[in-house]
Amino acid sequence: MVERLEKIKRDHWRPFIIAIDACLGLLSSVGYMTIAKGPVQPGAAVQKKLPAIGDIHMTGIVNVGGMMEFFVLQNTRLHTVMNMADAMAKGIIKADQMLPKQERIPSFFEALKRKNRTALL
Hints:
Layout: H1 2-11, E1 18-25, E2 33-37, E3 56-64, H2 69-74, H3 78-98, H4 108-114
Parallel strand pairs: 1-3
Antiparallel strand pairs: 2-3
């Protein structure tokens, strides 16, 4: 991840990074998504030492936290994760489309379409 961040900063002028991660939370919060200013600390639930990333971050609460986090993450329903990822992607695309044209040139999503990478959308 460190190498990828360095490459992004090297290859892009003033990149705005939206970090997206799954997280654990309360049973009543499973299925909820959050968005906040500042970086996310990926891997925190399973004590991974990864760099904080993002100008803003989105998280999807995919399962219950509190004990045996690694086991819980490994047994999280993929359907839940995929539905949240789809909802987040659609939200990002909608936000990009709502920006004034001068603020979104070149649009990341339009650039993907020009390169025939619409499978990501």
